[in-house]
Amino acid sequence: MTDNRGLRTDSGKTEITASVESVQSAIRHPSSAFRPPAFPLIALIVSGGHTDLILIKNHGSIEWLGGTRDDAAGESLDKIGRLLGLPYPGGPHIEQASQRGDASRFTFPSPLIDSHDFDFSFSGLKTAVFRETQTMQPLSYSTICDLSASVQKAIIDVLVKKTLTAAKQFGAKSLLLGGGVAANNKLREQFELEARSQKLGAKIFVPPKNLCTDNAAMIAATAFFNYQTVSWQKLDANPSLYFN
Ligand SMILES: Nc1ncnc2c1ncn2[C@@H]1O[C@H](COP(=O)(O)OP(=O)(O)OP(=O)(O)O)[C@@H](O)[C@H]1O
Ligand SMILES: [Mg+2]
Question: Is residue 52 within 6 Å of ligand 1 at its C-beta?
Answer without folding.
Answer: no
